[in-house]
Design a protein that fits this description.
By secondary structure, the protein is α/β, with parallel strands linked by helices. It folds into two domains: 166 residues, Leucine Aminopeptidase, subunit E, domain 1; 322 residues, Zn peptidases (Aminopeptidase, 3-Layer(aba) Sandwich), CATH 3.40.630.10. Helices cover 31% and strands 19% of the residues. The chain contains 14 helices and 19 strands. It has an eight-stranded mixed β-sheet, sandwiched between helices. Strands 1-6-5-2-4-3 form a six-stranded mixed β-sheet, sandwiched between helices. It is elongated, with a radius of gyration of 24 Å. Manganese (II) ion binds next to loops.
């Protein structure tokens, strides 16, 4: 072990710089043209945006063309704006309405609009408001989108998100979006307030996942990630067990211990739980989510090339998603038993680091031979899954920035997921489809299993380069015991983004949190 003298190891439980508060959201029945704001953003269906032409029924665009002296119909014609999906129209109002800028977003055919389309629209509007340094935004919804109010709220908060807390002076944003008014053409539904609260709680969970993912690795090391989970649990009234390094060793999480042994920042293991009061009635489902929490992945002794290594600060995004999900569960307290588990370690090379050809036992009892220290995620997950399965979940879901191979297969916006039963697959597919997060099922090809055979140990943890995402999934499957419904989600591509798109932010995205919470909601009663 290298000398620790002179190295300031921060004490546990320290807090990160505070982020600005999320914008407040109001819902009103109103005509946007009469509203005061910095930016007004309107959604319109294909065929509904005819500028000056009179259409039956109220639309959010009503009155704008006249107020703007015909400029809206002129621009609509000039730009051939028809309200097609992803078409936008943006104009300065020059003081003719009580907002500086009007933006109209096409949603496409009303019959085909999905929850994801609506969330993306609201996020784009919030991002545009940020770009305009707006403090107040009005979002006008056409009739028919009231049912998607929660997605609009989520979109606003997720689109407004920026990771700016480490910026000072001139680099700090000049303005923060403080208030957003959503206008409806018809009456405000009675449950609107609850819907807004739920949307904000869900967005706050995704944002917590993003913040954790974006924290620099010198600030967010295993113990700090555990402390962040603990602080969240205390705030939300969830149970939180933290196993420090001693406990990790005592319990025999040998693979987790091995991965972290080259770092001064020792591995930690966290178990968050939400168990509703009358648990045990027999009908309530028990869902267990597991995340990979590598706070920095240098590759270890099998060190990564310098280019792109910095991206590996996001290698704890699976764990961040678990914390974000549990924050939502803690806020909304659904009548479902939900557990959130993660293993956290830093993968570093040093004199104490583990090496290729080492053999370790596992919590499960199986022995594993190491052949590449950069394939560390599956090892800490092996111990985490072996722990998680003892809770006897109805559904066990793990998520991890696991393999570059998955990004090669599906690109960097799509999660690749695997399921060991058609029932788990159907549930997971329905949740993903419902939220609109991009996810694609991958096959657990049995013929690749031979790749995990080792001469000296029960298992080898990596296979060939080809099918690398599949062999990683097959390795994980070795540790789920007799769990009937298991899903493994490889989020290596979409967990981080080099630019904002849809409702995803640049940097850590919190991708998969929405789908995980939908799984929880869909298993209610
Ligand atoms: N953290 C990486 C996977 C990753 C790659 C995440 C790209 C996000 C973007 C993981 O720990 C890793 O290093 N995987 C190796 C496995 C290989 C050595 C078998 C990989 O994918 O190259
Ligand atoms: Mn790695």
């Amino acid at each position: 072990m290298v000398a620790t003298k002179g190295l300031a190891l921060r004490s546990p439980g320290h807090t990160f710089p505070k982020a600005p508060p999320m914008p407040k959201i109001l819902v009103r029945s109103a005509q946007p043209v009469k509203e005061t704001a910095d930016v007004i953003a309107l959604a319109t269906f294909q065929g509904a945006a005819q500028g000056g032409k009179k259409k039956p029924g109220r639309t959010p665009l009503d009155g704008f063309d006249r107020a703007l002296g015909g400029a809206l119909s002129k621009l609509t014609k000039k730009e051939d704006f028809r309200g097609k999906k992803d078409q936008t129209l943006s104009l300065q109002t020059l003081g003719k309405v009580k907002a500086d800028r009007l933006i109209v977003y096409g949603l496409g055919d009303a019959a085909n609009v999905t929850e994801g389309d609506v969330r993306a629209f609201a996020a784009k509007a919030a991002r545009a408001a940020n770009a305009e340094k707006a403090k107040r935004l009005v979002i006008g919804l056409p009739a028919g989108l009231e049912d998607h109010l929660r997605a609009v709220v989520e979109g606003i908060e997720l689109g407004a998100y920026r990771f700016t807390k480490y910026l000072t002076g001139d680099r700090k944003p000049k303005a923060e979006l403080a208030q957003v008014t959503i206008t409806l053409t018809g009456d405000v539904p009675r449950e609107a307030k609850r819907t807004v609260d739920a949307g904000q709680a869900i967005a706050a969970g995704v944002i917590l996942a993003r913040d954790l993912s974006n924290e620099p690795p010198n600030e967010l090391y295993p113990e700090a990630l555990a402390a962040a989970a603990k602080a969240m649990a205390a705030e939300k009234g969830l149970k939180c067990q933290v196993f420090d390094f001693k406990e990790v060793q005592k319990r025999g999480m040998k693979l987790l211990e091995a991965v972290g042994q080259g770092s001064l920042r020792k591995p930690h293991f966290v178990h968050l739980s939400h168990v509703p009061a009358s648990a045990g009635s027999g009908t309530r489902k028990r869902l267990v989510f597991v995340g990979k929490g590598i706070t920095f992945d240098s590759g270890g002794i099998s060190i990564k090339p310098a280019a792109g290594m910095g991206e590996m600060k996001h290698d704890m995004s699976g764990a961040a998603n678990v914390v974000g999900l549990m924050a939502i569960v803690g806020a909304l307290k659904p009548d479902v038993e939900v557990h959130g588990i993660f293993a956290a370690a830093e993968n570093m090379p040093d004199g104490a680091a583990y090496r290729p050809r080492d053999i370790f036992g596992t919590l499960d009892g199986k022995t594993v031979a190491i052949n590449n220290t950069d394939a560390q995620g599956r090892r800490i997950l092996a111990d985490a899954l072996a722990y998680a399965r003892t809770l006897q979940p109805d559904l066990l879901v793990d998520n991890a920035t696991l393999t570059g191979a998955c990004v090669v297969a599906l690109g960097n916006t799509c999660t690749g997921w695997y399921a060991n039963s058609e029932s788990a697959a159907a549930d997971f597919a329905a949740a993903a489809k419902g939220t609109g997060e991009t996810m694609w099922r991958m096959p657990l090809l049995e013929e690749l299993k031979d790749q995990l055979k080792s001469d000296c140990a029960d298992l080898k943890h990596t296979g060939d380069r080809w099918g690398g995402s599949i062999s990683a999934a097959l390795f994980l499957r070795e540790f789920i015991g007799d769990t009937k419904n298991w899903v493994h989600a490889d989020i290596a591509g979409p967990a981080m983004a080099d630019r904002a798109s849809g409702w995803a932010s640049k940097g850590g995205t919190g991708h998969a949190v929405l789908t995980f919470f939908r799984l929880v909601e869909n298993s209610l009663g």
